[in-house]
TrEMBL record:
<feature type="domain" description="2,4-diaminopentanoate dehydrogenase C-terminal">
    <location>
        <begin position="145"/>
        <end position="348"/>
    </location>
</feature>
<keyword id="KW-0418">Kinase</keyword>
<dbReference type="GO" id="GO:0016301">
    <property type="term" value="F:kinase activity"/>
</dbReference>
<dbReference type="InterPro" id="IPR036291">
    <property type="entry name" value="NAD(P)-bd_dom_sf"/>
</dbReference>
<keyword id="KW-0808">Transferase</keyword>
<dbReference type="InterPro" id="IPR045760">
    <property type="entry name" value="DAP_DH_C"/>
</dbReference>
<protein>
    <submittedName>
        <fullName>Diacylglycerol kinase</fullName>
    </submittedName>
</protein>
<dbReference type="Pfam" id="PF19328">
    <property type="entry name" value="DAP_DH_C"/>
</dbReference>
Length: 357
């Protein structure tokens, strides 16, 4: 019998998740939650842009969706600007016995050492009481910097450092709040955006560093180290969602670093441009506009570039698809997992079984 699934939100990732749920023979879409009342009553297939109806109408009624007794919620709502409210939502689902796979808050990808112990325990306990599991993942934070690098280390004889890098041109990334308020693109260089406030990078990506360290059996120095560099725009230009004026912030490179005895052992790095040709001295993909790169230095030293693009060639579109499908394809494993918080270290291999037919 197929697992009953509710999709929570129909933004960019949510639309791809609906398509993915519909494609999986082991899953049945039974409900869709929307925050916008104008979307209520519309068919899920229409909201996902599938060109056909799925017979499932969207609603703003949370209780009505829980009354459907879903096995799992695929939660893809924006959480960057409401982290702790989102945590409360996830606890509510767990307490009502519903498993959840979620794209955020990314802090929950591996919350140990990132969130206070009492908060982690409250989430875990909610899952135990409800007999439900929570798994937060995606592509980054997610597969590109948990399963992929740890799988590569299985080939190692000696590991000096693991470095995970996102290299991307965000000019087609259609998330205005993220681009302007979080990253500070288009803002004055003497102003510090939210992302670069002390400790915020470690909140956002510290889970990545700590999970890799846990997978390698490392005890990290505290606190994690943060570094960043910003470059100005050389001329006025527009991205898909915001204007960037000459002299304002246009490129960002940052690192979150886990050290052991002062030695950099696990590094999460982002290289973010908003137009081609920026920051020529920073790391670049070997082809295309973006990639996820994993470098394991040691014996042997290894580098893997994960290149991706959608059917129409855009890497930001494919990044959203990968985030959605990492969640959708994990539903069965998360439903079968022990109650509580489930990380990539706890799951069996997750594949696209059923999608190649």
């Amino acid at each position: 019998m197929a697992l009953r699934v509710v999709e929570w939100s129909t933004g960019t990732v949510g639309r791809h998740a609906i398509a993915g749920i519909d494609a999986r023979p082991e899953l049945e879409l039974v409900g869709v939650w929307v925050s916008n009342p104008d979307k209520a009553g519309r068919d899920a297939g229409q909201l996902a842009g599938l060109g056909r109806e799925l017979g499932v109408r969207a609603t703003t009624d949370r209780d009505a969706l829980l009354a459907l007794k879903p096995d799992c919620i695929v939660h893809t709502a924006m959480t960057d600007d409401r982290i702790f409210d989102a945590v409360e939502d996830l606890i509510f689902f767990l307490e009502h016995g519903v498993n959840v796979v979620s794209s955020g808050p990314v802090i929950l990808q591996y919350p140990r050492g990132v969130l206070p112990d009492d908060v982690v325990e409250r989430i875990r306990s909610a899952g135990v009481r409800g007999g439900a599991s929570l798994h937060v993942n995606g592509i980054d934070p997610g597969f590109a910097n948990d399963v992929l690098p740890l799988a590569m280390t299985s080939l190692s004889q000696r590991i000096n450092q693991v470095r995970c890098v996102e290299i991307a041109d965000y000019s087609t990334y259609d998330q205005a709040m993220t681009m302007t308020e979080l990253f500070g693109f288009g803002g004055a260089l003497d102003q510090t955006p939210f992302l670069l406030q002390p400790g915020v990078l470690s909140l956002g990506w510290g889970s990545v560093v700590r999970q890799i360290a846990a997978g390698l059996g490392l005890t990290l120095d505290e606190p994690l180290v943060e570094r960043h560099e910003r470059l100005p725009a050389e001329e006025d230009f527009d991205t898909v969602c915001c204007h960037i004026a000459e002299g304002t912030a246009a490129a960002l490179r940052f690192e979150v670093i886990g050290t052991v005895g002062g030695e950099e052992k696990v590094v999460l790095e982002h290289v973010t441009r908003t137009a081609p040709g920026q920051a020529p001295d920073w790391p670049r993909p070997t082809r295309g506009d973006g990639c996820y790169r994993v470098e394991v230095t040691g014996q042997p030293s290894m580098t893997v570039d994960l290149h991706h693009h959608g059917e129409h060639g855009d890497h930001n579109d494919s990044g959203m698809i990968m985030t959605a499908m990492r969640l959708v394809n994990a539903v069965e494993a998360v439903v079968a997992a022990e109650p509580g918080i489930v990380t990539a270290l706890d799951l069996p291999p997750v594949t696209g079984r059923g999608l190649a037919g």
